Write a sequence for this structure.
């Protein structure tokens, strides 16, 4: 439309709902509908529906597909059965993170991967490069729309559209379903810390499904949610955002997602660097903290302890659930220990007292 930004298949639905649209990862995306706080709390207490069609989808096919994936990602996809999903980073030889992603194992010869929107072109090239022609790597991002249905009532809503077996599915599993004659993937994955799932579908049925989800969940308190609420929800859980909390200069061990690094699965890109870092000990770590003073931490703000700079904020907000300012940031070890007092420098104006806490920031009561 002349602005160089792409529209998802749900663009008209968002405009009709009077969503505030903003540029994000090359797309024009809804940041909010009736307010970030309202949408955040809707997901925590009922059910929210997100358009995440800007995300990328890659597919690896062939007899060596699993072996290629195992070599590229840090987690162990080989140890799970078909129908399971695995959260994992992919790393450079340096141990820095290329991207974090969810790998869906259809079979050993068919691996479906959801990657971050801003990284999908880079990730596709990286996978092609690392595959060395041993399997087919397809970029299917333009073929798919993706809708996230999240919240304590999300499983019930998903069951109404896709069958009574869906609410009983375990986390990080997926099934293939048919919707309006189209093949779709219903997965119990998400980025909010709440139950629910994510649905991958052909673009042609996206608008119909979006409308039906909102209609079918009216008695459950369903409503649309934008990227603003998605960010505050994930931050409360200490879920990393690529480009803010993790990138190619940070490692999974530093980011607190070392559980995704399976050293005993065999060789993978970055293994030697990560093993060396583990043996030598971390010099910095990503922490969650609560501000016990006035002032909201923002990306790039400096963190202090013992009268000196010890780190930097990567993400921050006023938590809609906790009603207090919270943040994530890298700090020098040993200032990463829960209970440690730190200070947030508020653009040089003053420093706000804060305390490192055990994640997640938001806990179910």
């Amino acid at each position: 439309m002349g602005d160089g930004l792409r529209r998802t298949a749900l663009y008209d639905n968002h405009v009709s709902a009077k969503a505030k649209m903003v540029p994000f990862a090359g797309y024009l995306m809804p940041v909010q509908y009736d307010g970030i706080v309202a949408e955040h709390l809707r997901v925590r207490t009922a059910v929210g529906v997100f358009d995440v069609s800007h995300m990328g989808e890659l597919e690896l096919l062939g007899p060596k597909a699993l072996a290629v994936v195992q070599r590229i990602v840090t987690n162990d996809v080989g140890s799970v059965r078909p129908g399971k999903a695995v959260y994992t980073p992919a790393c450079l030889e340096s141990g820095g993170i290329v991207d974090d992603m969810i790998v869906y194992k259809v079979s050993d010869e068919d691996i479906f991967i959801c990657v971050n929107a801003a990284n999908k072109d880079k990730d596709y090239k990286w996978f092609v490069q690392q595959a060395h022609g041993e399997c087919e790597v397809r970029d299917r991002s333009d073929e798919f729309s993706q809708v996230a249905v999240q919240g304590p009532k999300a499983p019930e809503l998903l069951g109404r559209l896709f069958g009574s077996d869906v609410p009983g599915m375990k986390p990080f599993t997926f099934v293939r379903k048919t919707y309006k004659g189209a093949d779709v993937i219903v997965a119990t994955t998400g980025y909010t810390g709440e139950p629910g799932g994510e649905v991958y579908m052909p673009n042609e049925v996206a608008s119909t499904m979006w409308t039906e989800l909102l209609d079918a969940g009216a008695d459950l308190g369903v409503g649309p949610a934008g990227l603003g609420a998605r960010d505050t929800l994930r931050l409360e859980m200490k879920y990393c955002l690529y480009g803010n909390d993790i990138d190619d200069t940070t490692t999974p061990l530093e980011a607190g997602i070392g559980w995704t690094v399976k050293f005993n699965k065999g060789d993978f890109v970055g293994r030697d660097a990560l093993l060396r870092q583990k043996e030598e000990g971390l010099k910095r770590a990503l922490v969650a903290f609560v501000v016990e003073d006035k002032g909201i931490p923002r990306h790039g703000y400096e963190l202090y302890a013992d009268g000196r700079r010890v780190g930097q904020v990567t993400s921050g907000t006023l938590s809609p659930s906790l009603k207090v300012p919270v943040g994530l940031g890298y700090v020098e070890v040993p200032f990463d220990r829960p209970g440690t007092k730190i200070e947030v420098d508020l653009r040089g104006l003053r420093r706000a007292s804060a305390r490192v806490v055990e994640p997640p920031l938001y806990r179910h009561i």
